[in-house]
Amino acid sequence: MKKSILLITFLYAVGLTLSLWLYHHKPLLMEDVGQLLPTKIKEVHGATSEAKLQGWVNEAIKNNEKISVAGMQHSQGGHTYYPNSIMIDMKKYNNILDYSPHEKSITVQSGATWEDIQAKINPDHLAIQVMQSQNIFTVGGSLSVNAHGRDIRFGSLIDTVESFRLLTPQGTIINVSRTENSNLFPLVIGGYGLFGIILDVTLHLTDDELYQIRSRAINYQDYPNYFINEVHQNKDIRMHIARLSTAPDTLLQEMFVTDYQLVENQANLVEYAKLERDSLAAPQKFMLGLSRHSDWGKNLLWETQNKFYVSQDGNYITRNNAMRGDSKFMEYDNPTKTEILQEYFVPIDEFTSYLDDLRAVLKKEELNLLNITVRYVNEDEEAVLSYAKEDMFALVLLINQGKSKRDIEKTEKVIQEMIDVTLEHDGSYYLPYYSYPTQDQMDEAYPRNKEFFAQKKQFDPNEVFMNLFYKEYSQ
């Protein structure tokens, strides 16, 4: 009897221990903002110190484990995780380490957001050179995708970086710049976290400036000449953005453009310098909701957007506030649907004919296209995975789609058609999004991708740093 009780007690203890072990070691289901690649990972570590980061990398090397690096996870193709991997969340690794207003430079840990930087530098009337249209993203994540934005005088983000420190796949920490470990500079920036962990970054800053908004409606056929003659050749226009109609009645025909022109009297900068939030997020979110469900809603959204943005003509705004777009209007939570981004780059002289061919695809195929913004991107010859082989227009598409296998396949078909059209017009596409493009499309858009992956394998032969993007396209 006593032996039976002891056996039962022993088995109970073993079962409890096993249950606790399984509970603490159960796989985590990870998703990024696209919600189309749910993947079981081993665990998540929240970065707080350099020592811990280095320890986790050394432990992964010892145990033959894989690491992925994440910021805000707005990349939509599994760039921030990998099956059974350790994901390192960098968001709390966000200190400002050094700031020199006189030299117009700042050094920040890679988990710092652009908003963190703006809050620090705005009192000194300094501003960021290049970033996305929203300021919510981490600096490390933005470097990993080599982001670009509204500024037309600076190039991609890589142009604004002085140096960074990298925690390598060997567990060492090195300095990387155009003169030190320079071979890694164009690989890590735009390298999607595959070469190690960016620890901290030194960035060049610029002056905050007061702009007058210049906004007008325009036909798509007139846009290239307008941009070249009235925007690009006018050195006082520092930033620019345009929007294309996705409304069925005016699809890819009507546009409105917004230019940010330097005000001659900068003494008034102080009056507008307080950092503000975008007050239009709530109404835009409501209108966007209507457009998801009907052609009527899409037409109404376009008419309302057009009237509002054109009515801003003559208003004043600082550079810092122009670079604080609120992304809340794009927040979307639906159990069966999600929203994805695509971004296509085309040479300026191909813009009109490209839109004609793209419109033909969209009228033939079923795609719930909600919004298209247009930006200008300078040629980038530095980044190995450069998306801008010459000066180009960038078209950012917001698409509503279902999460089911059938819906994914339907969207894949249309996106591959759109990418084919883009490539036919000597264009390319952006890599931070879902892996709809084929390997052939990847090879054509990014002719140096095999060089990139070969350098990855040489620098990280044990493939310590992994993600689903690498798994998809590195073969």
Topology:
Elements: H1 2-25, E1 28-30, E2 39-41, E3 43-46, H2 50-63, E4 67-70, E5 86-89, E6 96-100, E7 105-109, H3 114-121, E8 126-128, H4 139-144, E9 161-167, E10 173-177, H5 185-188, E11 197-207, E12 210-219, H6 223-232, E13 237-244, E14 254-262, H7 269-272, H8 281-291, H9 295-311, E15 316-318, H10 319-322, E16 337-347, H11 351-364, E17 368-377, E18 392-402, H12 405-424, E19 428-429, H13 439-445, H14 449-459, H15 468-473
Parallel strand pairs: 3-5, 4-5
Antiparallel strand pairs: 1-2, 6-7, 7-11, 8-11, 9-10, 9-11, 12-14, 12-15, 13-14, 13-17, 16-18, 16-19, 17-18
Helix pairs in contact: 8-9, 11-12
List descriptors:
8-stranded antiparallel sheet; 15 helices; 3 domains; Uridine Diphospho-n-acetylenolpyruvylglucosamine Reductase, domain 2; 25% strand; globular; 34% helix; Uridine Diphospho-n-acetylenolpyruvylglucosamine Reductase, domain 3; 6-stranded antiparallel sheet; alpha+beta; 475 residues; 19 strands; Alpha-Beta Plaits
Percentage of residues in DSSP E strands? 15-25%
**Uncertain residue segments:** 18-24
Which CATH C-level class of the largest domain is it? Alpha Beta
CATH fold naming of the largest domain: Alpha-Beta Plaits
Q: How would you sum up the global shape?
A: globular
Q: Radius of gyration, rounded?
A: 24 Å
Count of spatially separate domains: 3
User: What's the assembly state of these chains?
Assistant: single chain
Q: Number of helical runs? A: 15
